[in-house]
Amino acid sequence: MHLCRLYFAVAASGFRRYATYRVATAAGVFTNTVFGFILAYTFIALWHERPQLGGYDQAQALTFVWTGQALLATAALMGGGFQEEFHERVRTGDVAIDLYRPLDLQLWWLASDLGRAGFHLLGRGIAPLVAGALVFDLALPRSPLVWLLFLVSVLLGVVVSFAVRYLFALSGFWLLDSTGAIALSTLLSVFFSGMLMPLNVFPGGFGELARTLPWAAMLQVPADVLLGARQGAQVATGLGFQACWALVLLGAGRLLQAVATRKVVVQGG
Amino acid sequence: MADGPDGTAAGPLRVAEGPAEAEGTAAGERAGGRAGVLAEGRPGPGARALWGVRAWGFTVAMWVRSTMVYRTSFLIMLVVGFVTTFLDFVAIMIMFSHVRALGGFALPEVAFLYGTSSVAFGLADLLLGQFERIGRRVRDGTMDVLLTRPVPVLAQVAADRFALRRLGRILQGALVLGWALWRLELDWTLWRALLTASMVLCGAVIFGCVFVVGGAFQFWAQDATEVQSAFTYGGTTLLQYPPTVFGKELVRGVTYVVPLAFVNWLPALRVLGRDDPLGLPGWVDFAAPAVALLCCALTGLAWRAGLRAYRSTGS
Fold first, then answer.
1. CA A113 to CA A153: how far, in whole Å?
2. How many CA atoms lie within 13 A of B126 on its CB side?
3. CA dist., res. B62 & res. B159, Å (int)
4. Cα dihedral angle (A207, A211, A215, A216), rounded to 10 degrees?
5. DSSP secondary-structure letter at B105?
6. How far apart are CA A37 and CA A125, in angstroms?
């Protein structure tokens, strides 16, 4: 119970930390909205040539664009989460201090990243989606239940995103300079989350593969829940898919963390 | 103005001993200190510009050497940069696996737009991309260091943490452009070749101006660095697609307000033999060099205004 409160406090401080920079948040909303407009126009041209491409109609395709912009910061799809800071602590040896705290390293960072994601969903998610809905005809659900399921799906997506980034960031224990690994992680998440193009438009077997990878849990599944491409039992399988990846990857993170902390050598010692 | 080739040749070697990122600022400070010794006397405006270019050269050489100490890291970042921008083009190829034309433009034509936009933006990003960092320098007060050195601040900011890995983007854009030129099977007259070359060069200048104006803007809006990305990264993404895809208001905006349409849209329409959606007079397609010059002049004013508005921290 006591530990629960502690992790909650960590999450709350993560939220407050990002909430401090209001001008930066407004700037981010502006940039997300500009990119949303650019992508929306290209998608309109594409769906004009091929209506029903990937099973979406034009309104659903546009909803996908704006959901993507709303979740860009929330699920840290282009980086910008905890990983740079964590990497820096590993590189400088400060991680040794984190390790002798009476807390779990992975859960600490998870709590802090969830706090950040919570703020980014409110601060950087709502405004672009509203801007998109004002200008374009979007396929947003009427039922509050669908919105609730969408929020659950976003939460699971953020956990999967965290678990993947944590694995990449742990490489710092071996590489010392994990800048390259973090860049690789960002590159994979931009492409395989569907940020550039929805995964159901990816051709053939490559598309099928992309839809089973963990990055599909970060944007594609939540977006499909919101825009109604997944309904009824398909929502349940989608959430199950996300939960499975979350458990597997968090587990892998724990294993790797155990190996990493055993080999930790603080500079000078 | 004194010259000191011996001093500058020895400098980067010593600097290169420190870890690239961590000791970087200290290394920059040392190089700047030496530059101060070199720039004694009061040079005229021409000599001052020349001195700015030379100082830029010294600092860039120092950063390149310090990057090369971690060669593997550099190669990884180069490849990652190449692949990251290449995936943008993969997304376009996925689009064209479903359709034959987008906004009436076939894949080689879109690749032509993509290549010219990417190479022009890549050049600007390599040479002036560091202007994104001004907001951070203003926040932590290290902008003061640049102001105390007898080197034009513009040259110092441009050379600060010069990132050679950005060649990856230029290389990727050049490959796509080469493929497009091969597939387009245009009738290559002299003016077409000149117009294409001028698209890349004038485009780089226009994008460079966007970077510098964005940097000047950060003197006022310190935390709002990300607004700049909407015009730089957003601009290059916009120009990778045909203008017919976008609403007329948007096309007008990037023609008259932020003159990005002169980077590649207007000249490219002429090279490809296409009609201009805004119906502007024909000579506009050749106006990019004049627009680039005008941008430079306005950027110079904006930069000076920004620098004058700078208030240091702590008081």
1. 16
2. 19
3. 9
4. 120
5. B
6. 15
Q: How far is CA A27 from CA A23, B229, B300, in A?
A: 6, 9, 24
Shortest CA distance from A178: residue in chain B: B73
Q: Which residues of A touch B246 (CB under 8 A)?
A: 38, 41
Residues A119 and A113: their CA atoms lie apart, in Å, by 10
Contacts of B229 in chain A (CB under 8 A): 31
Q: Do B101 and A49 touch (CB under 8 A)?
A: yes
How does pLDDT run across B111-163, given as a tens digit for each residue?
999 999 999 999 999 999 999 889 888 888 889 999 998 889 999 999 998 99
Number of domains in chain A: 1
Angle at B51 between CA B46 and CA B52, to 5 degrees: 100
Closest partner residue to A35 among B234, B244, B246, by Cβ?
A: B234
With contact defined as beta carbons under 8 Å apart, do B114 and B89 qualify? yes
Q: When comparing pLDDT for A102 and B237, which is higher? A: B237
Rounded Cα distance, B260 and B31, in Å: 36
Identify which of A217, A223, A208, A221 has the alpha carbon closest to the alpha carbon of residue A249: A217
In a domain, A144, yes or no: yes
Q: Which of B226, B230, B211, B214 is nearest to A26 (CA)?
A: B226
Contact A50 B229 (CB under 8 A): no
Contacts of A122 (CB under 8 A, 6+ apart): none
Q: Over chain A, what is the mean pLDDT?
A: 92
Say how far apart CA A136 and CA B244 lie, in whole Å.
Answer: 18
Q: Model confidence at B25, in pLDDT bands (50, 70, 90)?
A: very low
* Predicted-complex ipTM score: 0.89
CB contact under 8 A, B73 and A177: yes
- Nearest 10 degrees: Cα torsion A221, A227, A228, A232: 40
In a domain, A269, yes or no: no
CB distance B94–A197 less than 8 Å?
yes
- Which residues lie across from A77 on neighbouring strands? A79
Give the minimum alpha-carbon distance from A184 to chain B in angstroms, rounded to a whole number: 7
Judge whether A267 lies within some domain. Answer: no
- CB pairs below 8 Å between A and B: how many? 99
pLDDT of residue B46: 84
A213 touching chain B per CB within 8 A = no
Cβ atoms of residues B120 and B203 within 8 Å? yes
- Could you give the CA distance from residue A62 to residue B113 in angstroms, rounded to a whole number? 24
What is the dihedral sign for C-alpha B250, B255, B258, B261?
positive
Give the range of the structural domain holding residue A63, as residue numbers without chain letter: 2-262
Whether residue A142 lies inside any domain: the answer is yes
pTM: 0.87
Amino acid (1-letter code) at residue B19: P
Contact A149, A222 (CB under 8 A): no
